[in-house]
TrEMBL record:
This is Large ribosomal subunit protein uL10. It comes from Acidithiobacillus sulfuriphilus. It comes from the Bacteria. One of its GO terms (cellular component) is large ribosomal subunit. InterPro entries: Ribosomal_uL10, Ribosomal_uL10-like_sf, Ribosomal_uL10_bac, Ribosomal_uL10_bac_type, Ribosomal_uL10_CS_bac. One of its GO terms (biological process) is translation.
Length: 173
């Protein structure tokens, strides 16, 4: 079923809207995946704030024009799934994890910071810690000197209390 011109314009506008906040995008060949598998992929992606859509290549090309994702143009051949997200690591993890379980999903390439990346780079990106993990590490690193200082300050009165308790026990014996 072909789309009318107005519907095509809506699809292109919706794709451009998704690309505005995206930091990275990936295209993958989905030939052979069932509807249930595609639904499972979309559910996983939605949990990670990743937009996954099957769209005609011509409409995607039109949506990419004028964005830093325009370098994807050379990869748009055949039946492709398009994914975009604000967190490049989450995007890569969702797609590579799904591709490991379903060999029919083949990562074709993507765009990160306006540069085209291959499937190997997407694999490497998926091995990086997530944004939340990096923020937790940063917070732990920032808190370490302060908590060490507090423990040091707390040790003086704690040692005094232990000394008093030892003196009390010695006199009681």
């Amino acid at each position: 079923m072909s789309l009318k011109l107005a519907e095509k314009e809506q699809v292109v506008a919706a794709l451009r809207e998704k690309l505005v906040g995206a930091q990275a995008s990936v295209v993958a060949e989905y030939r052979g995946l069932t509807v249930a598998q595609m639904t499972a992929l979309r559910v996983e992606a939605r949990k990670q704030s990743v937009h996954v859509q099957v769209v005609k290549n011509t409409l995607l090309k039109r949506a990419l024009v004028g964005t830093h994702f325009a370098v994807l143009d050379s990869l748009l051949t055949g039946p492709l799934l398009f994914a975009a997200g604000e967190d490049p690591v989450a995007l890569a993890k969702v797609l590579t994890d799904f591709a490991k379980r379903n060999d029919k999903l083949v990562l074709t390439g993507g765009v990160l910071s306006g540069k085209q990346i291959g499937p190997e780079a997407i694999q490497q990106l998926s091995k990086m810690p997530s944004r939340e993990e990096l923020l937790a590490r940063l917070l732990g690193t920032m808190q370490a000197p302060i908590s060490g200082f507090v423990r040091t300050l707390n040790e003086v009165p704690a040692r005094f209390v232990r000394t008093l308790a030892a003196v009390r026990d010695q006199r009681a014996a």
